[in-house]
Amino acid sequence: MLEVENVQKSFGRSMVIAGASFSIEENEIVALLGPNGAGKTTLVNLISGHLLPDAGRIRLDGRDITHASPYRRIKLGIARNFQITQLFEELSVLDNVRNCVFSDHNQLLRLFRPADRYTEATAQAIDILELFNLHALAAEPASELSEGDKKILDTAMAFALRGKFLLLDEPTSGVATSEKFKVMDTIIAAITQRGTATLIIEHDMDIVSDYAQRVMVLAEGTILANGTPGEVMADRAVQETLFGVIDTDAA
What we know:
Low-confidence stretches: none
Radius of gyration: 19 Å
């Protein structure tokens, strides 16, 4: 589904991404780990089109998107949320999702027709709310939601763009410990039902071990390790990079 081939990105004299290569298959859920400053956000911005690489190639479903705009990538199937939720706080939960459906249908500029008159878009938005267990909150203002439900809504909005590849930037960041597994259970269930290939940037090792099928570790702009959560976390170089310690029992 996604192929990243020898991608490089510098800012001035600083090489942030130094030849990263990997692929993600259809229906696969992959976690991206790395210490602060490893280049995770830069790599995600290169995939989503918010930055362009200095070298290398990025392909989505076989199509070269290396120099495509963010808008073009959305239309081709890349959907993204951000670490800080991007919601219309004053609008209802339904209208947040429905606005994204309108965007996907190119209907945002029709200002003088009531939103409820768009029955197809409304039905599609309600289906997405049901997929994410938000239908009971449809009439609530987004500002009144818990942080966990805001994260779920943010992901539901990305789904409304009908992406086939999803980028999730720390989906449990800022969420109370008591809510984080509910958030991930809901999001992963929706991803699995739709069969959406997903790359998750995450620091929480419980989340990574419980929900990722594969883990990649980014260090100094390159992929240090790539494998199952158990394989990667047993790697001595990964332990030293992420935690500053080596598991001597595994040595």
